[in-house]
Amino acid sequence: MVGFSSYVPNWLEAILGEKDFFSPCTVHESNKRNEKNIFCLDCCLGICPQCTYHHRRHRFLQIRRYMYHDVVRVEEFEKLINCSAVQSYTTNSHKVVFLNERPQTSNYRTPNLCRYCDRSLPEQYIYCCISCKVKELLRRGVGIARELRECDIMPIDEGQFTSDSILESPDLSSGSSGGGNAVNLHDKAVLVPVGMEVSSRRKKGVPVRAPLF
């Protein structure tokens, strides 16, 4: 992959180079929930929820989609690599970071820029995504060995395969760059509790008068 070297673990190079997340799984084309939104860290491969049965005892990481780009939850990715200094966003009560660079659609510039791609950032951040952090550390000759963390067990629960793979609109107070970029958002599905799909109001009956004496 361009910009990386043999000093990058296979799983990291694979996840940052994967362009096929959220496409239908060719093995389970006829099944529901067949989007490839799970990354198998041991096989370095994007898979769908149906495929996890064949990857038992492997380590998994769920990929999510935010503003039409691939993200991971900080709390999960931190088990594998240090995410500090990477711009994060808060959505669905969880912090997420982008895996790769995004197109810059605005000429708005802030004094603080990503050290690798020059994207405008809030002051507290140095990198706009994981890929930029990795590439910059390699370019400076520092390497990423100190950033990596060992994690032998990363299971994924069936309950995680929900509509929140497509995340809701940004939390404007989460530290987004405010660069004026156009934002395209997926609509988040609203789950209605069973039994409340229809209005609970009953039709009023015709009032009956008391008989006259």
Topology:
Layout: H1 10-17, E1 38-40, E2 45-47, E3 60-62, E4 64-66, E5 69-73, H2 74-77, E6 88-91, E7 94-98, H3 130-139
Antiparallel strand pairs: 1-2, 1-3, 4-5, 5-7, 6-7
Description of the structure:
It holds the Pfam family PLATZ. One of its GO terms (molecular function) is zinc ion binding. The protein is 10% helix and 12% strand. It has helices at 10-17, 74-77, 130-139, and strands at residues 38-40, 45-47, 60-62, 64-66, 69-73, 88-91, 94-98. Strands 4-5-7-6 form a 4-stranded antiparallel sheet. A 3-stranded antiparallel sheet has the order 2-1-3. β4 and β5 form a beta hairpin. Residues 169-203 have low confidence and may be disordered.
Features:
213 residues, alpha+beta, four-stranded antiparallel β-sheet, 3 helices, 7 strands, zinc ion binding, PLATZ
